[in-house]
């Protein structure tokens, strides 16, 4: 919980950067993290065992309530205590696993945020400290790209006009060919292709 609070605390940028850099690059922290991963595997095994035990104790409790087992105050107390302990163990191990997932994901989100902030600062510094020559070059490049875009739009417009004229001429040719065929009485099957 303390680690989670440290990760989500509103720390200044420099402090957060130092802490996250230390946690992500330190070989000692890497060894501790490796040991924690192994221990969380054992906690996961304990969680599975606790869930199985909880179901087994719950089934025994239901069986005792149905009256098939000798009802005694000590038996009921023993069953209630076993049920409580099995549920407690299930919740403790489950919350421990959930907290490990939350801690890991929060750490990597914070690390990504730190890297993104660094990239943003570099980009901001690069654009604000850019010289007038770079700005002039970029303006020339923008003007050149606008000219190319206008030329391409003109070519596209000319091509569309040419396509429209060609389709109109084809339609007119077909109309005249049909009239000619009707006038001369010839039949052409070329239009059916």
From TrEMBL:
Alphabetical UniProt keywords: Coiled coil, Endoplasmic reticulum, ER-Golgi transport, Membrane, Protein transport, Transmembrane, Transmembrane helix, Transport
Any single GO CC term annotated in Swiss-Prot or TrEMBL for this entry: endoplasmic reticulum membrane
Keyword Hydrolase: no
Domain Bap31/Bap29 cytoplasmic coiled-coil: 140-188
Gene Ontology biological process terms from the UniProt entry: endoplasmic reticulum to Golgi vesicle-mediated transport; intracellular protein transport; protein localization to endoplasmic reticulum exit site
TM annotation in the entry: 32-51, 91-111
Annotated localization: Endoplasmic reticulum membrane
Pfam family, one: Bap31
Stored InterPro entries: BAP29/BAP31, BAP29/BAP31_N, Bap31/Bap29_C
Membrane topology summary: Multi-pass membrane protein
Domain of life per record: Eukaryota
Domain BAP29/BAP31 transmembrane: from-to ranges: 1-122
Residue stretches in coiled coil: 135-162
Role noted for this protein: May play a role in anterograde transport of membrane proteins from the endoplasmic reticulum to the Golgi.
PANTHER family registered for this protein in UniProt: BCR-ASSOCIATED PROTEIN, BAP (PTHR12701), ENDOPLASMIC RETICULUM TRANSMEMBRANE PROTEIN (PTHR12701:SF20)
Family the entry assigns: Belongs to the BCAP29/BCAP31 family.
The protein's name: Endoplasmic reticulum transmembrane protein
